Amino acid sequence: MRLINRRPDRASRLILVLLPFALLLFAYFTGSATRLTENPNDKLLPSAVQMTEAIKRVAFVPDQRTGEYLLWQDTGASLQRLAIGLAISAVVGLCLGIASGVLPLFSAPLSPLLTVLSMVPPLAILPILFIVFGLGELSKVMLIVIGITPVLARDLEQRAREIPVELLIKAQTLGASTWTLILRVVLPQLLPRLLISLRLVLGSAWLFLIAAEAIASTDGLGYRIFLVRRYLAMDMILPYVVWITLLAWLMDWGLKALTRKAFPWYEGARP
Amino acid sequence: MSFISVKNVWQQYGDQVVLEGLNLSIAEGEFCTLVGASGCGKSTFLRLLLGQEVASKGSILLNGQPLAKEPDSTRGVVFQRYSVFPHLSVLDNVALGLELPRSTLLGRLFGAAKRDAREQAAALLHKVGLDHALDKYPTQLSGGMQQRLAIAQALIMKPRVLLLDEPFGALDPGIRKDMHALLLELWRETKLTVFMVTHDLSEGFNLGTRLLVFDKVRIDPHAPGAYGARITYDIPLNSDRRAARVALDSLKTI
């Protein structure tokens, strides 16, 4: 049988899904064990026990200086920044995308501008953000907003243009004004697409968040990682990275589930 | 006075002349079928009637008034594809036509007004044979059912003109026949003036009370775009159907 026609059944599929993860873990822990037997003080590849100890220290023991539980405090701060940034970007991106994708008079000035703006490397203007917005929360949120809004807006603009013109004409024959047409036809059709776009920019959003936190912050997951880097505390960095990955994956999964639940018509309607 | 009069209408895109010198006068309640080779301007003419495009020269009058330059609720339309909204249930696809004109701020009705709109929509959907599918989404319907829905959606506005752009072009022959019966029935019940573009000549002859054939009279082989299509034949059809309709109308006015 040709390779292209061979499909895994349920059981072998599960094994195939888990296999690369298992291999990865296996490679890590053998490497870690080898290094630690040679030098018990090695910090580069900490063992599972060492990492568990580090997690216990930050997650379940209050910090001696502040009395806070560091992991949860960092997670809360980071997620708050991320959520505010994503929410602002989603609303602004949606508005710009609709205006530029549906209204030719708005498209003429907006579309080229968005294209150019999306080419500006957000990290390159991070210093400007710090200068303009200070070192507080605002500049971190703004970095996320500036980084992902043009991407969202351009994607949604494209999706809005893909709405068949027949539907827009039909809505007009049903008595829609420009405003109600956007409200009842364009917006509902773009919302599921917005969720998908958000999933795609989630990685960039985390990137910008960690970058901003690494440079100027007093808490946050990115801040903590860059702080303990000074002590080569791999036993803490690695769990933090895994935790961030898990959070990002959960957000991705949540958005996917929300798309399915809130827009049951969407899967079938894609051309 | 005629209901729709088309006076010396030309349509051209750049150098490409699509329609030239169209003159027509259509009475209210006429069922016009538009036939002709591909690319001869039938659909362009329909878009002019719809207001999706504006003629380069000439004028189209509806009831003596120049046609609005954009689509509005006086003219309903059914396209071959993409006529219904994928994000709305069958019921709401039709109820939308009642909601949009009545709520200019949100385009949405609430409470009793919404129930009332949905009831009216359901009654019309019953008429086109979709009462079993009110809660489904259009993608869950077959092609024929989607076109039934599109027709119901257009008719809820009680338009005076219904424009059909190859509405049954993608349907099976059997289903097409059902759709013809449905369309004729709806046409008889309302005072609708219908324009229907079709590729299927027999469909054109069977349904219409008037058949308009679009064709190029002049052809310059060196400049294919130099001349546009005209209406080469204007054939009255199914006079019994037309007469029945006129008689019925006169009965109603007594």
Average pLDDT of chain B, to the nearest integer?
A: 87
Q: Beta-strand level of the residues of chain A, as a percent range?
A: under 5%
Structural class per helix/strand content of chain B? alpha/beta
The total strand number of chain A stands at 0
Q: Structural class, judged by helices and strands of chain A?
A: mainly alpha
Please compute the radius of gyration of chain B using only Cα atoms: 19 Å
* Computed CA radius of gyration of chain A, to the nearest angstrom: 23 Å
Q: Helicity level of chain A, as a percent range?
A: over 70%
Q: Based on the structure, what is the oligomeric state of the protein chains? A: heterodimer
Helix content of chain B: 25-40%
Name the strands of the widest sheet of chain B in spatial order.
Answer: 6-7-8-3-9-10
How is this structure best described in words?
The complex is a heterodimer of chains A (271) and B (254). Chain A has 271 residues and is mainly α. Chain A has eleven helices and no strands. Chain A has helices spanning 10-38, 48-59, 70-102, 104-119, 126-133, 137-162, 165-173, 178-215, 221-228, 234-262, 266-269. Chain A is globular and about 75 Å long. In chain B, a hairpin with a 2-residue loop joins strand 4 and strand 5 (65-66). The longest helix of chain B is centred in the middle third of the chain and has 17 residues, at 111-127. Helices cover 36% and strands 25% of the residues of chain B. Chain B is built from seven helices and ten strands.
Keyword list:
heterodimer; A: 271 residues; mainly alpha; 0% strand; globular; B: 254 residues; alpha/beta; six-stranded mixed beta sheet; four-stranded antiparallel beta sheet; 7 helices
